[in-house]
Amino acid sequence: MSRQYLIRRLLIVVPSMLGISLLLFTVLALAPGDPFGELASNPAVPPEVRAALRAKFGLDDPVWSRYLHWLVAMLRGDWGFSFVSRMNVDTLILQRLPTTLVVIGSAQLLAIVVALPVGVLAATKPYSLFDQIANTLAFIGFSLPTFFTGLLLILVFSIHAPEWMQLPFVYRADVAGTGWRFYWEHVRQSIMPVMVLGLFQGASLVRYVRSAVLDVIRLDYVTTARSKGIGERKVIIKHVVRTALIPVVTLVALQMPIVFGGAIVTEQIFRVPGIGSLLISSILANDTPVVMGVTFVFACLVVFFNLMADLIYAWLDPRIAFR
User: Fold this and answer.
1) Confidence category of residue 39, pLDDT binned at 50, 70, 90
2) CATH code for the domain in which residue 122 is found
3) pTM, whole model, 2 decimals?
């Protein structure tokens, strides 16, 4: 991979993020609702105070003027001020972002760890009993929405399970305890959210890995590798899986918006204090600066993962040359 390609890719990210931010800001600015709607209906707030607040935050300015003001402030590190939480948006997001990244990262890791061996083994033994069982479970897994599987896991592991097997179904940030007990309690309350997201993603990845491996395993160079006396296991791992992972990496990168969407629902079910629950509460409260900040963070993460996918291609397949 050449340095020029990396620089060119990074330069493409800049106009992409500008276009995304302009679209998000315009949609939120034209959406119904007023952040100061509660103040307008409060007789204890004088009209001049309401007018001064609207003038301070520029709510009556044209959309293009408000966007330029927001963009300049963003470049300076000022993400705005939350009307509901009474604190800076960047501080509010940084408090919630680590929890969401840990849950989503663990779920993606679980999905990959489950999907890769199951998909590869199902492809090497097509139409076998294992392949049929794997396909059936995969169809069931990605057909069930995350809110249903979340409620199902709560019923199984939090209500009807024996006491020694019960898992907390409400995520608490203020876990009591120190040392290993503190980390163990965080792991226990993360098991069900991670399982819901991980198994949902893993189910779709199993089908995709199986299809990609089946396409590669029939190619001529794989037959040539076998004819040279190379062991079947080495042929599968070195010659088949690496090439088959290229479309899988693309799928993982493109599915990141779906993962974050599922995380929003899952965080609501298990009361995980992440940016997904922050987004829902901000939308309900018409807290536009927070909604803009959270959606922009989501967009940045999606663009970042797509960039990482492009860079991983060259490592998986040396035939791909970046110029």
Assistant:
1) low
2) 1.10.3720.10
3) 0.77
